[in-house]
UniProtKB/TrEMBL annotation, chains A, B:
GO terms for molecular function: hydrolase activity. Belongs to the peptidase M20 family. Keywords: Hydrolase, Manganese, Metal-binding. It comes from Lacimonas salitolerans. Pfam families: M20_dimer, Peptidase_M20. Its EC number is 3.5.-.-. The keyword Disulfide bond does not apply. This is Hydantoinase/carbamoylase family amidase. Coiled coil: none annotated.
Length: 398, 398
């Protein structure tokens, strides 16, 4: 099968016209926003032109369906509040171009998926999570965004398009093309990454409670200072993780709130975020045990109270071997020696779809590892290589 | 001279009626608020009844002036947004009762001071700072509170009362009675603290700048994580201070701001407050050098940028020996063995007034060391002892 690079790149650039940020190639296209819905309407036309039957489900997931059994290929066209032009949009256009090229070549049958709210305006990969059955529609409808709008209200904006949920049984598998979002491929000068697995995530809030006091009159030995507790916790945790983690393991505290937050008051309460990711479920559990033991030890030593928020847990997901190896074989044909097998440190729709059918992912390089930023970009030669690897893999699967 | 404990306590309780919080004995009486001005109007009547000439200066400082040379005694009646009933109000009523008792005893001449905005709605000990000459009226007028109101606007609420600034040359000295705000006297079961000096304060914001990144796809070795920088800085600082500090030295980080403050984003910027206090100017300077060296070392080791905000510097202030020793001698007469010499870890109006005349301070115990809280309190027996120590010291000064 022959892909059409010009048609592929042209559609990719036309798509970034919806919600264009005016800064570089960036886009502002959050789920269910006017630009997001306009982009999906335009994509629906492209899918129809490709001979696909357009279908929207009740939560805004968009499909271009081929008749009979087919391979599903796609990603998501919604973006972060300050998003890049590729991210999930690349995977959707890859699916569209593959469907066109495959139809021109007489098969195989390709359907296209464009999931809704992957970027988590409401939940986390909301649309594909609901489709996979991991989140009920009733639960989802109560989710709110930062401005207090509910998912129920938001999906109302696409209600006029909505049919039922698509039966996953018609799909033989799912392939998602996405930018890496990390630095590995770019720094190695490689063109393709074959995802072995999508890492699991653990995320929770931790709160130390101490005693709010005057920063001038309270002697150090008498303080129950929650900031000092946080600093001690973070330092101990880094030491104790060393014997457990791999070079791919990551852990992050991205939010800290000290109360009352004044220069002259010893903070009586400190709430902070603790998130860790790894491809191995046992390692995630060992890290959780270390986190809880260390926090308790710090609290006991300093006379602090300790509270935990809800633990968000997403399990690691292995990619399906047949699809994964077809992508690997195709990469070796298209860009020999310039590809690698790698983990996905970011969550993707494929992690949800894997609950319904065999799923695999293909990464292209992110320049300087930048994503979720207007500056996000990938060399167009690498975009074309990614498209060719996808097409070759699908051809080889026959 | 004989003080009148009932009259003293009665006025103290009447004063807490202005801006009563309804929670315990707490008050809400910020500088220039309606309750603050009403309290000052009521105090003006008490001063006049005591035979003093009431005078307000352009910045809301209130005086009850005795004719000729006099000893100035007082503090401030404004409170924190959530303040205790004593704090500075105690010192003002002590001055009032002393003026009455002294007049009844035929002298010595006592004037009363009630400074404005000691609690720093606008600056830091604003009223007495301006009177001391350390801050010009023009500079002060541009200061704003949390809601953006300017000092110029606020002092307009007392403009109808305002005369000129009072000539400090008429005062032979200044004595301020205040609650300790710390735990030392209460824990030792002592009744009086004779302040040897008011500690100096250094305060600045420190900002680490790194690289904002995806918390899933950015490997640890490639991160420039400003939270990790803060944690490393805090841990190193505690170690390095050990050889420099005394049991009275304190240092505090009460505010931390991570940007953008999301669970899934490596924080690219961290701004935090660093405040340290000590009675010795050289030690404050040594601590500053350690702070700057340690921050630079952490920044260099982690590839972070480093910026400092304005350094607020208040020098330590020694209390005047003659007044201080008169208070010490009186304490030994009134509560033998139940008093101590001690530092003030908190800033007070006396630190400013000391630039104009000999100044001294007397502390009474704070139950559980609590202050700037509705729960702030002191045993009334200890309040009376404090009043008696003040009166005895003034009598002995003749």
């Amino acid at each position: 099968m022959q892909i059409n690079p010009d048609r592929f790149l042209s559609d990719l650039h036309r798509l970034r016209g919806f919600g264009a940020s005016g800064v570089g190639k960036g886009v502002v296209r959050p789920a269910f926003s006017d630009p997001d819905i306009a982009a999906r309407d335009w994509l629906a036309e492209r899918m129809a032109e490709a001979g696909l039957t357009v279908h929207h489900d009740p939560v805004g997931n968009q499909f271009g369906l081929a008749p009979g059994p087919s391979l599903l290929v796609g990603s998501h066209s919604d973006s972060q509040p300050e998003g890049g032009w590729l991210d999930g949009a690349l995977g959707v256009i890859c699916g569209l171009e593959l469907a066109r090229a495959s139809a021109e070549a007489g098969g195989p049958a390709i359907s296209v998926a464009n999931f809704q709210d992957e970027e988590g305006r409401f939940g986390v990969t909301t649309g594909s999570t609901i489709w996979s059955g991991a989140l009920s529609l009733d639960q989802a409808d109560t989710l709110t965004d930062r401005d207090g709008a509910t998912f129920a209200e938001a999906r109302g904006a696409m209600a006029h398009l909505a049919g039922g949920f698509v039966d996953p049984a018609q799909f033989t598998g799912f392939i998602e093309v996405h930018i890496e979002q990390g630095p590995w491929l770019f720094e190695a000068g490689e063109a393709a990454g074959i995802v072995t697995d999508i890492v699991g995530i653990r995320d929770m809030r931790i709160t130390f409670t101490g005693e709010q006091n005057h920063a001038g009159t309270t002697p150090m030995h008498r303080r129950r200072d929650t900031f000092q507790g946080l600093a001690a916790f973070a330092a101990l945790l880094n030491e104790r993780f060393q014997n457990v983690v791999t070079p791919q393991t990551v852990w992050t505290t991205g939010h800290v709130d000290l109360h009352p937050g004044a220069h002259s008051i010893v903070p009586g309460r400190c709430t902070f975020s603790m998130q860790w990711r790894d491809g191995n479920g046992d390692r995630l559990a060992r890290m959780e045990a270390i986190i809880r033991d260390t926090a308790q030890e710090v609290a006991d030593a300093r006379g602090l109270g300790l509270e935990y928020g809800t633990l968000l847990g997403l399990e690691p997901v292995d990619m399906a071997a047949p699809l994964r190896e077809a992508l690997a074989g195709a990469a070796e044909q298209v860009c020999p020696g310039r590809w690698r097998r790698m983990q996905s440190g970011a969550l993707h729709d494929a992690a949800n779809v894997a609950k319904l059918m065999p799923a695999a992912m293909l990464f292209v390089p992110s320049i300087n590892g930048i994503s979720h930023d207007f500056a996000e970009d990938t060399d167009e030669a690498d975009l074309i290589i990614g498209m060719q690897v996808l097409a070759q893999a699908v051809a080889d699967l026959r």
